[in-house]
Design brief:
Blueprint lengths: L2 H21 L2 H19 L6 H5 L6
Helix pairs in contact: 1-2
Length: 61
């Protein structure tokens, strides 16, 4: 996950908390916290991209 996507997710989390404060509905709170948990878990999963991906399947001299 890129840095821009991570910060966009944090913005959505904060907006969800604002909606919770406006409405007082617990669904907004639990949804925002669940979204934050998913965001953190997805950001911690290694994608295997970059230089390591190019090295796979390369023939040895």
């Amino acid at each position: 996950m890129g840095a821009v996507a991570f910060f966009a997710g944090l913005l959505l989390f904060v907006m969800g908390l604002g909606k919770w404060q406006e409405t007082g509905s617990d669904l907004w709170l639990y949804g925002s916290l669940g979204f934050l948990l998913v965001l953190v878990v997805v950001s911690l999963i290694p994608t295997g991209g970059g230089a390591g991906k190019a090295g796979k399947g390369a023939k040895k001299g």
